[in-house]
Amino acid sequence: MSSRPTSSLPLRKITHFSLREKKQRGEPITALTAYDYPTARLIDEAAIDLVLVGDSVAMAVLGYDSTLPLTMDEILHHAKAVRRAVKSALLVVDMPYGSYHTSDDDAVRNALRLVQEGGAEAVKLEGGAHRAPLVERLTRAEIQVVGHIGLIPQSVNRMGGYKVQGRAAHEITQLMNDAAALEAAGAIALVLEGIPREVATRITAAASIPTIGIGAGPDCDGQILVFHDLVRLGFGPAAKFVRPFADAGSEIRDALDLYREAVESRTFPSDAESYHLAAAVRTELASV
Ligand code: KIV
Fold this sequence. Notes:
Elements: H1 16-25, E1 29-33, H2 37-45, E2 50-53, H3 57-60, H4 72-85, E3 90-94, H5 104-116, E4 122-126, H6 132-140, E5 145-150, H7 156-159, H8 169-185, E6 189-193, H9 197-206, E7 211-214, E8 222-225, H10 227-230, H11 248-264, H12 279-286
Parallel strand pairs: 1-2, 1-8, 2-3, 3-4, 4-5, 5-6, 6-7, 7-8
Helix pairs in contact: 2-4, 6-8, 8-9
The site of 3-methyl-2-oxobutanoic acid has 12 residues, from strand 6.
């Protein structure tokens, strides 16, 4: 049965406790990215558990060719719109590249902005065990943190491209250590991106906090996709792990063709789509 809330049902507010309970019950956690009010509202009303204002906004919406140029002000602009829409889901906002790389003090200041100005209930940052002290510091400052390990797009230059991580034994050990260190530091969940299914399964089994996979196979505690991939609203080839559940790109292209044809053939707007004067004013106008 669908868990879609209706107006007659009380709001089910998702917290990190709810996510952990779902893991314990073996119930899959649903998560999606959102960057604007209408999309976030649709996602929230569809009873998705977690909404991420991902730094993927840089590529999915802003036309950058990586996530690296995204600034704090840009992500805050999107987070505020999403915050206004999301009532039920846990709202997580990404810390952009550069916002936590200079010093822990800068990182706390920037994370506080995401919470205070953007309405984030948790922030997400990329990196493994070396980020554990920062995660601990943020957690002590009452800022909830979601970790992100595996293929971490902010490290695209170090990785030499968007490549699946954790294929070699030493990398697998490192990923297991990363997950354990982030959990011990207080992370409330872990995004596992672009790693072999078998590795995600092991990390998920070892972790007490939920794992949310993207390109990490079906055995994670939850799944996340970039909204624009889910509805096929992008321009490049889709990654292997993406399943488009709709084809919004072609729907929009069709609508645009119909609109252009209707305007060019003067069939839009019709008389019924026009405003009219009252009969008395029309008569008066006709007599002058
Ligand atoms: O920015 C993003 O969309 C993400 C997801 C891929 C998890 O980090």
